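S.,

Sequence below, as promised.
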Amino acid sequence: MYDSFVEFMIAVVLPLRAANPDAIRLDGALSGGSRNSVGRFLHDGREWVVHEDTHFEPLQIAFQSARVGSNPFVEEATDRGLCLSLRSDLRATQTSPHKYMYIYSWK
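The prediction came back faster than expected:
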């Protein structure tokens, strides 16, 4: 469990990216869903779980914003709890129109 999204990125995501620079997803796969997690972090008083089918691009966009002290996320309701999505201004910078970021809180 990491105390912040930035700490999670530094400890988990950046090393994964460095080890697999051509990968588009945290798990290195090209497609398919996964409920396996790569880690957890705290954000706005909640514990969030990051699934391994999350793509690097939205995480990197969020990281750039979070490093300068801006909250890159909005919370959205799901059938089972909440998920984090990029703010609309940040999402507009993504090369894909798809979310590709699977971060959930069920508590």
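The helical segments are 5-19, 56-67, 88-91.

Coffee later?
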